[in-house]
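Appendix B, Record 12. Input sequence as logged:
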Amino acid sequence: MTPQAQIALRVGGIALLLVILQTSALSQLSFLGATPDIAPLVVISVGLLAGPLAGAVTGFGMGLLTDLALLQTLGVSSLVLIAVGWFAGRAREILRDPQATLVPLAAGAAGSLIALMGFSIIQFLLGVETPVSLELVRQIISTVLINTLLALPVHALVRRILAPALPDAGRRRRRPRRPAGGSRSTISPLIQP
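Logged structural output:
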């Protein structure tokens, strides 16, 4: 099986499992007056680990599954999550160390904010009868705070599942070990003493 097929199967399994978890369990929980939304976090994690194309495709799939499961207007979540996944993948290409500890936290907060605001704007433009008030702003801020706290565990779970299928370039790079004794014999590995 090719690496792309392995990644696709693993991402599809993650998406299906977490959409079921989101709609059945997490939607029943309420923290700070809001419910956690792990769909943007999963899409961001896939984008950071596998690149913009995988992030956008995951966003489309998870958005479509979410819209189908919640009987919402089809395509709204997909449209928003495609953008979130693509920008997370682009951030992977731009950042020096996309697997640093603070990157999933910052990306989770920013991606959740973009996803929630984008979803709200699109729903408003489509004419869904929902009152726009400070309550909406409070709920968006609460959800972003909750998602920021959940960003690291979700990223670790997605990384653990995708790690065997990712090419070596997607894995975290480490510094080479120093020679025994802690001293450097040469500056360049090409120059032999």
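The chain has one domain: 3-166.
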